[in-house]
Structure formats: C-alpha cells, structure tokens
Amino acid sequence: MTYSMVRIGAYETIKARMTNGKKPSTTQLIISGAFAGGLGGVAGNPADIVLVRMTTDARLPPEKQRNYRNAIDGVIRIVRDEGASALMRGVGPNTARAMLMTSSQMATYDVTKNYLMMTSHPKIRLKDGLALHIVASGVAGLVATTICSPADVIKSRIMAKENGSLTQLIRKSLRNEGPQFLFKGWTPSFMRLAPNTILLFVILEQLKGLYRGVLTVAPS
Fold first, then answer.
1. What is the CA angle 26-138-184, rounded to 5?
2. Phi, psi of 209 (to 5 degrees)
3. Whole-angstrom distance, CA of residue 5 vs CA of residue 120
4. 110/207 Cα distance (integer angstroms)
C-alpha cells in the first residue's frame, strides 16, 4: 500500500508539473513514471523485504526459517537482529524495479488510452469509458510484466538472502540457470499483474471522475 500510494500520487503530481497543463509527450510520461516509481520503491522497501521473506520462508530448512508472525513483527525482528540498515537491503534493485514498473505501466496506459481515443481507425477507436480503461490497462499490464521481469526476479532473490552481493547472485544464477532466469515466473507474474493493473486504473479513473465532479459543483 505504501509503495502504490506514493508512486501513483507522485506520478500525477510530477506529470502535472512537467507539462503545465499541456498534453504530455511519451518521454515526459516515462520520466514522470520513473521519478514516481523511485520514490515509491524507497518508501515501500521495508515492507517488501518482510513480504518476500514471509512468502519464501516455507522453502527454507526448519532451522533457517524466520517465522515472522506478521509484518510488524518482521520489521521489529529485522531491526533487532540485523540493524535498521537491513530494511534498505536490496533498495537498489527494488527502486530500479519500481522505476521500470511505474514508467512502463503508467506511461503505457496513458499512451494506449490516448491512441485509442484519437486514432483515425474507426474499428478500434474507443470513447473514454470503462471499455477503454480495461483495454488500455490490459496492455499496460502486459508491457509492465515483460519489462519488469528481470528486475523483479533479482529483487526477490536478493531480498530473500541475508548476505552476498548483487553481483554474486547474478553470476550464480546465470551459471546455474542461464539468462532465461531473468524471465522465470513471467506467466504467474502476468496473471497477477494484469488483473491488478486493470483494477488499479479502472478504480483510479472512477476516483478522478468523482474528484472532477466535486470540483465542478464546488462553489467558487
């Protein structure tokens, strides 16, 4: 929640400041998404570490399992056992992944939405509405999953470890699995991210519509 709130809120703010009310270019959308994603990645890093460790705990030998009771217990025990700096472990890959995710997801959605609304091909042209939001967000989910897969795999693996450098991890994975390890889990990632992205943008568009409605009827 921390990650998503920061990146979505920051994206809209940065985009508005960069364009000054004008139509944004694709480059401006990508830059806005990258900056917003970076902020979200840093803000959400501690929660991400706990999440990764809790979901991978069952795969570890019993003597190495951490058995965090909940997210708060996880944060407390990480700080107590490894120091506060451990909450920022993997912040580099995590921030890179967040920048890739937000720039690809948000920019692709905006570009696809604008294209489908403005295209000269009547068979694929869509009016601003639910169908348009679903199609554009589906495309955004596909692009984001593909672009983010390498960073996602590396981020998850380094966060699950308690020691070892990023370079060592990549070398070991390449040696044992080959470069295809970077896209390991693409299908389940897409099956998770696609509906998540569709719900995200559909709800976000509804909230934007409600907000614009409130501004329209608000007394000056």
1. 95
2. -65, -40
3. 35
4. 16
- For 120-172, the three-class secondary structure string (H helix, E strand, C coil) is CCCCCCCCCCHHHHHHHHHHHHHHHHHHHHHHHHHHHHHHHCCCCCHHHHHHH
The one-digit pLDDT tens for each residue of the chain (220 residues) are 778 889 988 998 999 899 887 889 999 999 999 999 999 999 999 988 898 888 888 888 888 888 898 989 999 999 999 999 889 988 887 888 899 999 999 999 999 999 999 998 988 999 999 999 999 999 999 999 999 888 788 877 776 765 667 788 888 888 888 888 889 889 999 999 999 999 999 999 998 888 777 767 655 5
* Pair of tokens at residue 28: 């401006």
pTM to 2 decimals? Answer: 0.76
- Alpha carbon of 57 to those of 31, 69, 131, 150: distances in Å? 36, 12, 40, 22
Q: How many residues does the chain have?
A: 220
Rg of the chain (C-alpha set): 20
DSSP assignment of 52-97 equals: HHHHHGGGS-GGG----SSHHHHHHHHHHHH-GGGGGTTHHHHHHH
Q: How far apart are CA 121 and CA 89, in angstroms?
A: 49
